[in-house]
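Exercise 7. Given the encoded structure of a 175-residue chain, write a plausible sequence.
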């Protein structure tokens, strides 16, 4: 109980100290916090990765190829691999949000308005990263596997990707 009241007093003292800190210290502190949130959001968004693939067809009992309907063929079936990755547009949006917030804060009528602008911008920046990731992943997982001649529509601007088409590797031969 004594430790709890001491922690509460410490927090109250820190809050009072923050309120009486010079304006420049408060503004620089909030600007630094905004930049750190933007950096954290960009790092979080960089973890956006997913992949899926398919190889319609396969091998017969002799190690030869069969197509998607199970018919023997001498041509190796084509395999399709899709990869989801971050889109540069989201990094641009995060950077623009920081610049806009700092510009608006510099032109704010008073210190409280400037601090409020930067605090809200941090929330917006995190939302940009999280929402972009969610939309990109849900879109990617919900999209059907394309054929080798299909067009793939990635969830731009929330994510980007690549489609790789390769022939199926030959199977083991009996000998």
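Solution.
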């Amino acid at each position: 109980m004594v430790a709890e009241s001491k922690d509460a007093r410490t927090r109250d003292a820190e809050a009072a100290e923050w309120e009486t800190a010079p304006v420049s210290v408060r503004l620089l502190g909030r600007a630094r916090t905004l930049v750190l949130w933007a950096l954290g959001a960009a790092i979080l968004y960089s973890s956006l990765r997913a992949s899926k693939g398919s190889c319609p067809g396969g091998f017969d009992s002799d190690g030869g190829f069969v197509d998607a309907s199970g018919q023997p063929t001498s041509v190796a079936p084509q395999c399709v691999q899709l990869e989801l990755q971050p889109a540069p547009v989201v990094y641009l949006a995060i950077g623009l949000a920081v610049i806009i917030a700092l510009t608006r804060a510099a032109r704010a009528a008073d210190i409280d308005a400037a601090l409020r602008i930067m605090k809200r911008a941090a929330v917006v920046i995190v939302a940009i990263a999280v929402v972009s990731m969610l939309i990109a992943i849900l879109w990617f997982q919900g999209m059907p596997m394309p054929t080798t001649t299909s067009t793939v529509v990635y969830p731009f601007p929330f994510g980007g990707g690549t489609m790789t088409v390769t022939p199926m590797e030959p199977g083991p031969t009996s000998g």
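Remark. The CA atoms of residues 96 and 129 lie 13 Å apart. Students should compare their own answers with the one above.
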